[in-house]
Amino acid sequence: MSKQEMGRFNISPDDDSMSSNSNDDFSYPEYPAKKSSTNGHYDMDPENQNFLLEPTLAKKKCETEYLPGTTSFGMSVFNLSNAIVGSGILGLSYAMANTGIALFMILLTFVSVFSLYSIHLLLKTANEGGSLLYEQLGFKAFGLFGKLAASGSITMQNIGAMSSYLYIVKYELPLVIKQLVGPTVDPNAWYLSGDCLVVMVSVFLILPLSLLRNLGYLGYTSGFSLLCMVFFLIVVIYKKFEITCGSWLTNDVFNSTLNNTMSQLTAEDHTNGAELNVTHDDDDMCKPKYFVFNSQTVYAVPILTFSFVCHPAVLPIYQELKGRSRKRMMNVSNVSFFAMFVMYLLAALFGYLTFYGNVEPELLHTYSKVAGGIIFVIVRLAVLMAVTLTVPIVIFPIRSSITQLLCAGKDFAWWRHILITFLILAFTNVLVIFVPTIRDIFGFIGASAAAMLVFILPSAFYIKLVKKEAMNSVQKIGALLFLISGFVVMIGSMTLIIIDWVHTESSDGH
């Protein structure tokens, strides 16, 4: 078994302790347990007993080859929260406009609870399976097929997320620069080219941060990224009380350039649906809806599911958590999910209550109708900084997945680490620059990969690898139902997207 495959688990008496012995943080399922030497010293969960080494062998292994988790609880919360939040927050008001307040809150609650449940399954499976690598859990459960399924899902999901972030950089950063320089700027200047800017941001900001070997070092940038999103949320709440309902109709200053970002990420009929919403009756236009069903409602679940996908980052964060234990990592997850639940709900609610049915798929663009000035330049910069600083977090699980797939069993090498990081960024930049219709591909990949990572893989691995629970137990039955619901979500979302493609193609043909 390779170094990377070794699970590392805290077996200290106090799960919440921050000062566990480094020699107690690791597990080696290949070796037999020596229960007689530990019963008097550890208050242990039975699931961890099979991870104990002979004391002398464990001491030698830990001292010469392995390091304990070094990332604090707070930094782990920042990293996981940053892995959750992203460009999806800009589209939640649009989702609420097409579901209604009550239905949106129901869907948001269910998706967040299901995502937390899948993290619980994943962490318990990691303990039982003896590995903190998603791909190795897949291999232990279903052989090469499981490893390929895990690696492929992680890579597709995160490449799609990275591309959406870089699309925002490509189409928003030139607008910010243009507003800062002034109206006399040459529109053909190189520094207003989105392609040039996205490459420069990737090379000079994203690449250096992505080359860090440990996620813990990104806790500070993650904290700053979250502060940027909190600032965005504060402005959204403030503008709700400043912008009067209907003012966007009398002061319609649509700027076609400002509508590029989400038009690159969503289907064309989404925008058409947003435009059709403008034709509401005046009496009905400023009344909040609690339940809405229309052609765009079906996209709410994929949008929300995508917004809570952080599962590829869970095991790397767990691996580096100081005082590592399943209970401690679930506390990290609970805090992170609760914070993001509140942020998502407030951003969606106040954005919707500002524009009601006239909200666009990308919330920032909607404000261009009625608001401007330096405050929204700062807001755009904050959002740009937030999504840019999230990209390195997303690269970590992709690089780990590729390394496990192609170079499993090999020692760490800086040249390989740098090369894989560079190739990931280069490939994503090529997609963003040369494939303008990548939004359809991302929609399909997001619906399939998100369902795989949230529903299908954690429950399937749990059912296969957790042997101490019978198939007729409540835990296994719950995991089985979760697995079935995952297939329903994935097949349903993919079918609806394909139908949407066919409908769009037939409409364009006429």
UniProtKB/TrEMBL annotation:
It is found in: Cell membrane. Keywords: Amino-acid transport, Cell membrane, Disulfide bond, Glycoprotein, Ion transport, Membrane, Sodium, Sodium transport, Symport, Transmembrane, Transmembrane helix, Transport. Residues 1-41 are annotated as: Disordered. It is a multi-pass membrane protein. The chain crosses the membrane at residues 77-95, 101-123, 144-169, 189-210, 217-238, 298-318, 330-353, 373-396, 417-435, 441-465, 477-499. Residues 70-498 form the Amino acid transporter transmembrane domain. It catalyses: L-asparagine(in) + Na(+)(in) = L-asparagine(out) + Na(+)(out); L-methionine(in) + Na(+)(in) = L-methionine(out) + Na(+)(out); L-proline(in) + Na(+)(in) = L-proline(out) + Na(+)(out); L-threonine(in) + Na(+)(in) = L-threonine(out) + Na(+)(out). The keyword Secreted does not apply. The keyword Iron-sulfur does not apply. It comes from the Eukaryota. InterPro entries: AA_transpt_TM. Pfam families: Aa_trans. Belongs to the amino acid/polyamine transporter 2 family. This is Sodium-coupled neutral amino acid symporter 2.
